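Example for tutorial group B:
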């Protein structure tokens, strides 16, 4: 510091031939003393992971199957969106247990309560807290699971990871946790509908060996009423009856079967998703494979596309009557290069059989002894009908999070009208928002 001061004082400053004492006092360089304290060791801190999803529209779920209740906290929701508990209850009712003979007999109303983030019927932009109490608990049904592990469940792996677990109902590994996904998914669907007219519809396309042919469903005209017209949530009445019969046949045997849920997105804004690691299909894959019992994921032609050549599989571009770029086919499933291209997004999620009831299975105990176990409790003979609103919710959460990310990066300045289109072509009408 001393050499710098002397160098400064010996040279003309801003054209002055000589620096007098007043100038030196005015422009003197202050010295700052920094002291370093001895480093003290800190206690090891572990940040629990796995219960939060999203970056801009951020959802954290909480609760366990047989605890006091389950729910979520939603952070990043835009303000001034009309929202009530009824908006969430519709999808929660579609997810809840005890809907029909082909779902788990557990009786829960799944009535939700919003305790923050909404004021006088509109969102405030602050965290939204949603809670659903557990009311129909039967902890004694899980006595055997405190001793031995159910095959193909999370019992053993939770013990291996944490050294402790909530035995009753599977704790956090229970599908009851998905209440905390379906509720914010309903909010996300409302935002997408108001902003860009985006619609998300999922339906059951396969139950065990009953496969719904693709040409039996028109994705351009498919409606929620068609999906909700039967207890298995298949929009084709003939195949719905076949699926219900398959579930009934296995249900009376105390066994279970899996299936596939197909989900479509209409009017998704172009440009959602980012290269390279945040491709839209990669975001969908993570979201949907995080659902309980999910074991497979496809976009567009999926694995079937491997039977085609490139010339057969490629989606050719053309200009429609409005001068808009479209594709003649949609084998890419509305996503090209990891980014949405304006066509209908189509994806499928495969769900495994989840439980066997009243059937002996070989397993091991927590103290490493081989035994036979008869699992008790209440389970879905086929999870796919109740998985439909769960799939819609996760797709909605991905889309709204990606929409907010795209708007933040690409909406800061005016678009290039030669190459881009406005995000919200189905723009928000004034009556749709609380101003």
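The residue assignment follows.
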């Amino acid at each position: 510091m001393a050499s710098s001061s002397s160098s400064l004082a010996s040279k003309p400053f801003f054209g002055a031939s000589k620096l007098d004492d007043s100038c030196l006092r005015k422009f003197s360089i202050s010295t700052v003393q920094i002291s370093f304290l001895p480093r003290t060791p800190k206690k090891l801190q572990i940040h629990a992971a796995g219960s939060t999803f999203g970056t801009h529209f951020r959802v954290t779920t909480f609760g366990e199957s047989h605890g006091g209740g389950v729910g979520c906290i939603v952070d990043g929701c835009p303000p001034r969106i009309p929202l009530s508990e009824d908006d969430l209850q519709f999808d929660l009712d579609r997810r809840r247990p005890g809907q029909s003979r082909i779902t788990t007999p557990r009786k829960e109303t799944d009535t939700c309560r919003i305790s923050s983030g909404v004021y006088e019927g509109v969102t405030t932009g602050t965290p939204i807290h949603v809670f659903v109490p557990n009311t129909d608990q039967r902890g004694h049904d899980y006595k055997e699971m405190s001793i031995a592990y159910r095959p193909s469940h999370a019992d053993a792996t939770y013990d291996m990871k944490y050294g402790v677990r909530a035995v009753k109902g599977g704790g956090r590994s229970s599908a009851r946790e998905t209440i905390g996904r379906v509720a914010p998914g309903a909010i996300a669907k409302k935002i997408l509908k108001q902003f860009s007219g985006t619609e998300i519809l999922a339906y059951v396309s396969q139950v065990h060996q009953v496969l719904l042919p693709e040409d039996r469903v028109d994705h351009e005209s498919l409606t929620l009423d068609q999906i909700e017209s039967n207890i298995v949530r298949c929009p084709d009445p003939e195949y719905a009856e076949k699926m219900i019969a398959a579930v009934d046949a296995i249900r009376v045997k105390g066994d279970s079967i899996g299936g596939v849920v197909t989900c479509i997105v209409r009017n998704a804004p172009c440009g959602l998703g980012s290269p390279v690691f945040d491709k839209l299909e990669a975001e969908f894959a993570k979201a949907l494979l995080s659902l309980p019992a999910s074991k497979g994921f496809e976009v567009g032609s999926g694995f079937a596309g491997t039977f085609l050549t490139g010339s057969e599989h490629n989606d050719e571009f053309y200009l429609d009557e409005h001068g808009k770029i479209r594709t003649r086919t949609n084998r890419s499933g509305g996503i090209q290069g990891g980014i949405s291209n304006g066509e209908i997004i189509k994806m499928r999620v495969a769900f495994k059989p989840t439980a066997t009831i009243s059937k002996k299975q070989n397993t091991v105990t927590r103290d490493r002894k081989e035994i036979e176990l008869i699992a008790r409790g209440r389970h879905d003979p086929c999870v796919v009908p109740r998985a439909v609103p769960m799939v819609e919710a996760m797709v909605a959460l991905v889309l709204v999070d990606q929409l907010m990310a795209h708007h933040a990066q690409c909406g800061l300045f005016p678009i290039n009208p030669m190459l881009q289109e406005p995000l919200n072509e189905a723009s928000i009408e004034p009556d749709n928002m609380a101003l």
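The radius of gyration is 28 Å. Compare this with the pattern of hydrophobic and polar residues in the output above.
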